[in-house]
């Protein structure tokens, strides 16, 4: 007994299957995790090491080099890069894409061990290296908190309160605070009084350190118990620090006799944040992995609402990004699109096959969709942009299985067969070809879904959902569809005429007979058309991932290297004032000194620099961004010519960075900068579509070099360290201790009055205290003056080699791939000295890496697909006919994309794979139908025509329903190019398939044609 007949005879089991799919789908919708984008592991860790006082070159040579040497021994390593600034090494460790997220904790432990082992070879003055493996944490609930009129201490208390309370919310993994005001206690001795009293700077620093340090005081044993002794408490207020006394020459001197003590903000904070131009700090909330972010976000909103009575009046929580709201809206909108697609399918089927067939196929399709959600929940596949899109991508293949079965049963029952006989006959002819074609359709996506890189991880849910839905559609097509057909289809008398006697079928049959007679002309026409379409496809714009449909875009602004954060903040205020007058701007957040917290997975924060300004701008609608962005770029470039001003759209998918980038690696910084300048000149000469050319080494920065006189200093008993400390005391200040205020640790700085505002002229007269002479000596007696030197203060290394990267953007709407093609040749012609190399980065590298990874997987998938097609027919000529159809998949794609002007993006590639799967499926079932018709003894030519005619309606219906089902996706920025790819490709190639497949079949059986001619003669 066949499966289809058993589904009717044992209907209870079939109804149970339907109930499981339906109720399971409802349960799945209620419990499944929801995200905006699929989670992919950011396989990066950051190693930070401070080296106070060192130049960028010394940091690179003495800190980064030994650490990189130790780290590169890890076999899991892919790329290691470092950014070296004066006093700080920042090493980025990227793990090879063959390791998945579950292996990372162990890899990070190994990284920590390597870094720890390397500490012994670092300079003694270098700090302990810190390994940050939470670089990829996403704080999707992101607020800017403004508190005008509150003191800095009160703002810190508010931040601590909010963080503490939100951390208690179920499902919250972490809460990140950024941009809090940075305070210090400033001790500023008067130089003249200090000199007269003979107070050594070290004595001041030591007294403050002793008064604020935490030291053990031991313990005693008493009555069998060990009792700890607390040390005398240190200074716990600014007034107590003012009242400190210092021993000088056997006398006690009050600190206030020669110094002022004050509390205030640091002049050069690490970061400044503003919201709508108002000072703010940010609060980012991340949810635990695998949970429904919508539920977590709603609980956070509820908790914040509960806290409102305890939050002081005037403190506002302004949402910058609310992932749970975005996910909820996107999921609902996409579910609506999915529902619209299903309704469109049912309406089309009702028009062309009647309401009974529409009910059978539509119910099967609905059960397939909800059943897929059920299995998604079981396997832990979240409902996000890619997994939901997979259902629509698979729609054509999902509906095709049910249409084939319903069409077959309807035809057989119209000829008088009972429903059981029709089910058995239809299943016998189609269930194995449909299964084989379904598996082939799944394997078309295996190369992407099983790719080990970030793109493969990002798109894994696509492969998983397509696999689940297609297999489930086959199961339901041969079980549920026959049962529903049994209930709803009417058995005919058998004398109602042929099922394919309509005018459309007769016209198609006549056309096909002509095509078979003119087969070589048809093949030549198909070949010429395909070649023309491939040429047209070469004219289609290329794109990696499309721009996001979230109404956000960014501003990046950089002053020349060496600028202060105050100057950057002042320039950003100019932009803020301009934005505040634009009615389409909903809100804007300003970050000065670094990027924002990673509030979405595809957002990559910039490295912290005082010269960097960043704006996140939200508009009312997506359509307002292009004009606003163009106006803003024009204003910013004109109003702030002293800096580099550029905007950037938020993009889907992994990637980020400059769209065009070329790297030069080699030992000499001067040669690297020369190569970079030559590359910039060649790029500008080759294309007028480049903008914002820059290097990641930025500009060289002036440094003041004291000319130290060894002889005079030795005579005076002064060391290099004494000179350096005196200069620090005269400028940034010397850290003397830590002031503790609840959980805060506030530095205490000893510095010269006015040190932060004076230029360098006062340095030459700065006194240096000589311990040997017990007196202060003017610095000019120890130096031969100062000189200026231009230094590299941002040295980038890649795989242990100094590497400079020339980066460039393209104007909005211009395709980066096309511009890259224009400049590639001339840049690669640059003569490289021995020991230097050139590599391309940017979008070209990202796309190439993804395609290379895909290319490694596709041959295996392709081999499996070919083997399945051969095993299905157990012959070679029939699979050859099927695979000859695949090249024609591009025909309609090229026409559709050229007509709409959309680029061929990575999502369009998914559409092309889906299209190939549909063509293969149609071809397999069509060729199988011809073989079965021939097996019934029908003459060869007539068998080809009759079998093809019998497949016309299901093929056209599957194509029409799929094409119309894509219509709701045309308004989705992520899926628009994919929708056009499937619509254009399927619409064009389906017509060709119904001609090409029979013609190819006719050609590969010359013996049958000759035998038919002999029989006719």
From TrEMBL:
Quote the Gene3D superfamilies the UniProt record gives. Answer: Multidrug efflux transporter AcrB pore domain, Multidrug efflux transporter AcrB pore domain like, Multidrug efflux transporter AcrB TolC docking domain, DN and DC subdomains, Multidrug efflux transporter AcrB transmembrane domain
Q: Which Pfam families does the UniProt record give?
A: ACR_tran
Q: What is this protein called?
A: Efflux RND transporter permease subunit
The scientific name of the source species is Palleronia sediminis
Q: Which UniProt keywords apply?
A: Membrane, Transmembrane, Transmembrane helix
Q: Which GO terms describe its molecular function?
A: xenobiotic transmembrane transporter activity
**What cellular component terms from Gene Ontology apply here?**
plasma membrane
Q: Which residues cross the membrane?
A: 333-352, 359-381, 387-409, 430-452, 458-480, 518-537, 854-873, 880-900, 906-927, 955-976, 982-1004
């Amino acid at each position: 007994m066949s499966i289809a007949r058993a589904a009717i005879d044992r209907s209870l089991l079939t109804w149970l299957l339907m109930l499981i799919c339906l109720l399971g789908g409802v349960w799945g919708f209620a419990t499944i995790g929801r995200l905006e984008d699929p989670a992919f592991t950011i396989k990066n860790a950051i190693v930070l090491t401070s080296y106070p006082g060192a130049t960028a070159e010394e940091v690179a040579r003495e800190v980064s080099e030994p650490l990189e040497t130790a780290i590169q021994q890890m076999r899991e390593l892919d790329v290691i890069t470092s950014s070296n600034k004066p006093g700080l090494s920042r090493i980025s460790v990227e793990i090879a894409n063959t390791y998945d997220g579950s292996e990372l904790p162990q890899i990070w432990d190994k990284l920590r061990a390597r870094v720890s082992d390397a500490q012994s070879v670092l300079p003694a003055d270098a700090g302990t290296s810190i390994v940050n493996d939470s670089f990829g944490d996403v704080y999707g609930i992101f607020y800017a908190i403004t508190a005008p009129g509150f003191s800095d201490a009160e703002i810190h208390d508010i931040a601590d309160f909010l963080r503490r309370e939100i951390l208690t919310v179920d499902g919250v993994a972490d809460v990140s605070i950024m941009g809090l005001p940075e305070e210090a206690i400033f001790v500023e001795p008067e130089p003249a009084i200090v000199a007269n009293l003979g107070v050594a700077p070290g004595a001041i620093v030591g007294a403050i350190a002793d008064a604020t340090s935490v030291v053990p005081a031991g313990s005693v044993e008493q009555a069998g118990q060990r009792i700890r002794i607390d040390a005398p408490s240190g200074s716990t207020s600014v007034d107590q620090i003012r009242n400190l006394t210092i021993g000088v020459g056997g006398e006690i001197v009050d600190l206030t006799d020669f110094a002022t003590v004050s509390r205030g903000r640091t002049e050069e904070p690490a970061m400044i944040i503003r919201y709508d131009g108002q000072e703010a700090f940010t609060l980012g909330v991340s949810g635990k992995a695998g949970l429904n972010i919508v539920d977590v976000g709603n609980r956070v909103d509820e908790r914040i609402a509960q806290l409102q009575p305890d939050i002081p009046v005037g403190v506002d929580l302004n949402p910058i990004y609310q992932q749970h709201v975005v996910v909820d809206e996107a999921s609902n909108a996409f579910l609506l699109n999915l529902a619209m697609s299903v309704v469109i399918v049912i309406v089309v089927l009702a028009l062309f096959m009647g309401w009974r067939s529409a009910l059978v196929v539509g119910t099967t399709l609905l059960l397939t969709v909800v059943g897929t959600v059920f299995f998604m929940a079981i396997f832990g596949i979240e409902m996000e942009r890619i997994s939901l899109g997979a259902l629509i991508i698979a729609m054509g293949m999902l509906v095709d299985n049910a249409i084939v079965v319903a069409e077959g049963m309807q035809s057989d029952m119209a000829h008088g067969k009972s429903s059981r006989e029709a089910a058995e006959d239809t299943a016998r002819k189609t269930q194995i070809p449909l299964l084989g074609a379904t598996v082939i359709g799944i394997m078309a996506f295996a190369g992407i879904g099983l790719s080990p890189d970030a793109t493969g991880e990002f798109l894994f849910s696509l492969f998983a959902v397509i696999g689940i839905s297609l297999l489930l559609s086959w199961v339901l097509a041969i079980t549920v569809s026959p049962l529903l057909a049994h209930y709803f289809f009417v058995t005919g008398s058998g004398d109602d005429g042929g099922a394919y006697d309509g005018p459309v079928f007769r016209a198609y049959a006549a056309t096909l007979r002509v095509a078979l007679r003119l087969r070589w002309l048809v093949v030549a026409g198909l070949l010429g058309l395909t070649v023309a379409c491939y040429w047209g496809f070469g004219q289609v714009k290329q794109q990696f991932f499309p721009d996001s449909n979230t109404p956000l875009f960014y501003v990046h602004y950089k002053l020349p290297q060496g600028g202060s954060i105050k100057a950057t903040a002042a320039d950003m205020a100019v932009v803020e004032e301009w934005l505040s007058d634009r009615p389409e701007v909903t809100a804007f957040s300003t970050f000065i000194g670094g990027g924002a917290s990673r509030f979405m997975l595809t957002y990559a924060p910039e490295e912290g620099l005082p010269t960097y300004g960043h704006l996140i701008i939200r508009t009312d609608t997506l359509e307002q961004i292009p004009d606003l962005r163009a106006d803003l770029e024009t204003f910013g470039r004109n109003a702030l010519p002293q800096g580099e001003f550029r905007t950037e759209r938020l993009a889907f998918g992994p990637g980020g960075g400059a769209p065009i980038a070329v790297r030069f690696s080699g030992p000499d910084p001067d040669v690297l900068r020369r190569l970079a300048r030559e590359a910039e000149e060649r790029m500008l000469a080759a294309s007028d579509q480049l903008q914002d050319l820059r290097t990641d080494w930025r500009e060289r920065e002036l440094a003041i070099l004291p000319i130290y006189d060894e002889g005079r200093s030795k005579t005076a008993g002064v060391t290099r360290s004494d000179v350096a400390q005196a200069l620090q005391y005269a400028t940034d200040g010397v850290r003397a201790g830590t002031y503790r205020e609840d959980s805060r640790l506030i530095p205490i700085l000893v510095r010269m009055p006015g040190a932060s505002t004076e230029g360098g002229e006062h340095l030459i007269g700065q006194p240096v205290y000589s311990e040997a002479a017990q007196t202060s000596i003017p610095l000019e007696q120890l130096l031969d003056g100062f000189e200026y030197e231009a230094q590299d203060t941002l040295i980038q290394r890649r795989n242990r080699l100094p590497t400079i990267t020339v980066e460039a953007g393209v104007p909005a709407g211009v395709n980066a791939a096309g511009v890259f093609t224009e400049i590639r040749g001339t840049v690669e012609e640059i003569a490289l000295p021995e020991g230097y190399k050139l590599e391309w980065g940017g979008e070209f590298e990202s796309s190439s890496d993804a395609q290379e990874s895909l290319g490694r997987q596709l041959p295996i998938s392709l081999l499996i697909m070919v083997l399945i097609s051969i095993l299905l027919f157990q012959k070679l000529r029939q699979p050859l006919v099927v695979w000859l159809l695949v090249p024609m998949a591009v025909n309609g794609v090229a026409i559709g994309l050229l007509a709409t002007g959309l680029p061929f993006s990575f999502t369009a590639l998914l559409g092309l794979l889906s299209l190939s799967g549909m063509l293969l499926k149609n071809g397999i079932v069509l060729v199988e139908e011809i073989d079965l018709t021939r097996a019934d003894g029908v003459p060869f030519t007539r068998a080809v025509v009759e079998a093809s005619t019998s497949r016309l309606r299901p093929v056209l219906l599957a194509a029409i329903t799929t094409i119309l089902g894509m219509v709701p996706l045309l308004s989705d920025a992520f899926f628009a190019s994919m929708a056009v790819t499937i619509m254009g490709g399927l619409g064009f190639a389906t017509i060709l398939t119904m001609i090409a497949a029979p013609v190819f079949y006719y050609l590969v059986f010359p013996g049958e044609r000759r035998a038919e001619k002999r029989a006719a003669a």
